[in-house]
Amino acid sequence: MNAAALGRSCCRAALTSLLLVMLWPVPVSHAQSFRVQAGSSTLTRATGGSFDVRGRTYDASIGAGEIFGRFRVGALVRKKTKNSTLSFGDDAVDFALPTDTLGGRYYFLARGAGLTVARPGFSLFALAGTTADSVGAPFFRAADASGPLGLVFFDKQIAPRWRFFSRNVIAERQTSLQGVEWIPRASLKVAAAGGIGAGEGYASASAHYDGGWLVAHGGYVAAGRQFRRIQIDSPSSSESDRENVSVTIRPSASWSLNASRQNLLQPDSKGGAAARVTVNHLGGNLNAAGFRVTAGLFDAHGERTDNLGASIGVGRALTETVDASLTYFTSTSGRGPASGSFAATFRETLGPRLTLVQIATHASGQTSLKFGGSFLSNLVAVGIDYQTVYAPFRVGNPFVQAITLHVRVLIRNVPLQVATFTTPTGRTRYMVSGSQSWYRSPGGSGSAPDTIRLARYLIQGRVIEENGRPVPGAVLRISGEFVLTDSAGQFFLRMKKAAPCRIEVATDEFPGPGYFQVTSAPGSVVPATDDTSVPITIRVRRSDRPH
Q1: Rounded CA gap, 407 and 431, in Å?
Q2: DSSP codes joined into one string, 173-237
Q3: Which of 214, 260, 304, 489 has the highest local Cβ count within 10 Å?
Q4: CA separation for the pair 359, 488 (Å, rounded)
Q5: pTM for the full model?
């Protein structure tokens, strides 16, 4: 059986299992939750939707849509027992290594049957099936089967301060990476790994130190130009290469300095050898006498890009409701002339629900004005802002003034959302999505039929960075339920009762490079009806170390 046929068989089996889960009689003592979501995104060139069902010991989902111009269908069923979980269908596999220096997560999609076992001091994940040749969208997961795949990941505590880890992939090009992690004390972690990845040699070593005011981590990776953890066609599977170092000095809350150097192997879209890219950064900030001063120096060069940029800005709160800032940007690309620009921002807070933003930009002898702001109510939330971001892979000036748009409208208890993203090449992408949840609860007597209804109470809010930038894909645990933020950093969860719910922020599961630290978040929240629910705000900041 070839990979395509195996993938179709796995998908049909998962769809059958999903239908059995949905139609199988549920004991009256158990409840089920349902969720439907759909959307469209130019970030992943995807349009589609999904349906999810969750019970006490299982969860299942089915998704369908178009990704990169092709229609795809996917499904996933998971059944939990005391120490293990059986899965069948399309799932995202976490392929992180303890030697990954600059944090972040590495995921790939696989289709097949999986087993997860977790016990104190030991964990195992095994899967047999195929790889998937496309990425999932934020609101559904579907893919085409690619090559046959078998994998075994396990971690074993071999001593109080030592852990052995093993990552093995059986495919057309084999991967076998073995390593150890040593934690001599809470502030220091050392790891080493070696083996082959997609048939290419690999060796790495890393150290992480957290001394409070001084945080440093670094590592070195020796790998072949065609090294991949697994041979898949993924636009987000860059690998660390050679030296990677980051040092942060934060002796007080009023000032800090950070310097980093990162080397990457950037995959070739046509399957050739990856290109090497180096990104250097030096920056700092100072808060004194009511002023905020920030400065940064950026350098990205390699076989496909070469640019150097710098920025310096100063800001101050003029009154309790008005804040102003001025920033200067300069950059050079290749052998071209240097370019510079100024951006002045005025932000006015007119109340707890309304904020206005005015931005004046001067570049290339021309001045432009842009207006934005935000409005928040129980039914409508709208935000329009502008941020100058550093896009290291953009041809020409790497500083891009990107619009950040998020709109959320609640129509008959269905939240519809629109948001934008800025890619590393400086392009703006959008996502439109909507979702709805229901609960099936048992009737009042043993013979009474089950009822399906919309949960009455709502918890909603946003996860943002300290500068107001939304954090998409942030993971929250609310009374044991996992919730992910959308592209605008927003989340919502419906509850059956207006009882206090504990909120936990799972920063170690956030996507993207680096780590996050929670700076403010409520410990609990009480759900409310749609017309009285007030969105909560969770603030985080990027960090160079896990917390």
Answers
A1: 11
A2: S-EEEEEEEEEEETTEEEEEEEEEETTEEEEEEEEEEE-SSEEEEEEEEEE-TT--SS----TT-
A3: 489
A4: 21
A5: 0.66
DSSP state of 507: G
CA-angle at 163, arms to 161 and 169, nearest 5°: 170
Mean pLDDT, the chain, rounded, equals 78
pLDDT in tens, 269-321: 555 556 778 889 899 989 998 899 999 998 888 776 778 888 899 999 999 88
Task: Give the pLDDT score at 316.
Answer: 93
Residues 224 and 200: their CA atoms lie apart, in Å, by 6
Instruction: Give the model confidence (pLDDT) of 432-475 as tens digits.
Output: 777 776 666 555 444 444 444 556 778 888 888 776 677 776 77
pLDDT tens digits for range 35-62: 788 888 776 677 888 888 877 788 888 8
Give the residue carrying structure tokens 């599977």: 237
Confirm if 72 and 165 have CB atoms less than 8 A apart.
no
Name the CA radius of gyration of the chain, rounded: 25
Take residue 98 and report the two structure tokens written for it. Answer: 């303890």
435 closest CA partner among 407, 419, 459, 416:
416
The per-residue pLDDT for range 249-259, each reduced to its tens digit, is: 988 878 999 99
Q: Distance between CA 261 and CA 7 in Å, rounded?
A: 41
Q: Token pair of 175, please?
A: 């991967």
DSSP at 470: B
Domains (range + CATH), the chain: 457-547 (2.60.40.1120)
Question: Distance between CA atoms of 205 and 212, rounded to whole angstroms?
Answer: 23
Of the ranges 146-160, 309-323, 424-438, which one carries the lowest mean pLDDT score? 424-438
Structure tokens at 515: 């780590």
- CA separation for the pair 495, 508 (Å, rounded): 25
pLDDT greater than 70 at residue 247: yes
Transcribe 295-312 into DSSP letters: EEEEEEEESS-EEEEEEE
Give the count of alpha carbons within 13 A of 130, CB side only.
21
Q: Which residue has the tokens 């999903």?
A: 18
Nearest to 287 by CA among 466, 463, 464: 466
Across-strand partners of 17? none
Angle at 383 between CA 377 and CA 386, to 5 degrees: 160
